[in-house]
């Protein structure tokens, strides 16, 4: 009951703000926006440094809101690929713009030296963004060359 109550409050705030996407979902969406062909769920777990179960739960919530689409991989029918929808990309960029607005208001209120030292501290703490590579072609097993028979 408590979860349903919390979810309804969150949805009410989201409707009021015009946003459906949460900050956690935006974290996942940033990788899906950069990956043109989508990402396998396992790759998304690796990039976000979480477990596959966590990725499945977050992506399922995003799919319920129409932010993400899950489908079987065309190269490997066993894996599931998550792709961002147009609505999901719009929500991501909208949320990002609002966060930048909050940051700019914070910078305007803070003394100059403090914001630059905070930015430097955050750069030291945050690892660089992972570079997304395109999906590799499926591995094909090559037959080993046979050695010539002995005399």
Q: Secondary-structure map with pairings?
A:
Elements: H1 2-17, H2 23-34, E1 39-40, H3 41-48, H4 52-64, E2 68-72, E3 80-84, H5 86-109, H6 112-125
Helix pairs in contact: 2-5, 3-4
SS summary, helix count: 6
Q: What's the CATH C level?
A: Mainly Alpha
CATH superfamily: Winged helix-like DNA-binding domain superfamily/Winged helix DNA-binding domain
Order of helices and strands: HHEHHEEHH
Low-confidence stretches: none
Shape: extended
Class per helix and strand makeup: mainly alpha
CATH architecture: Orthogonal Bundle
Distance between the termini: 80 Å
Radius of gyration: 22 Å
Average predicted local confidence, pLDDT? 77
Query: Domains counted in the coordinates: how many?
Result: 1
The proportion of residues forming helix, as a percent range, comes to: 55-70%
Strand order of the largest sheet: 1-3-2
Strand count, sense and closure of the main sheet? 3 strands, antiparallel
Q: Indicate the CATH topology.
A: Arc Repressor Mutant, subunit A
Protein name: HTH marR-type domain-containing protein
InterPro entries: HTH_MarR-typ (IPR000835), MarR/SlyA-like (IPR039422), WH-like_DNA-bd_sf (IPR036388), WH_DNA-bd_sf (IPR036390)
Region (Disordered): 104-151
GO molecular function: DNA-binding transcription factor activity
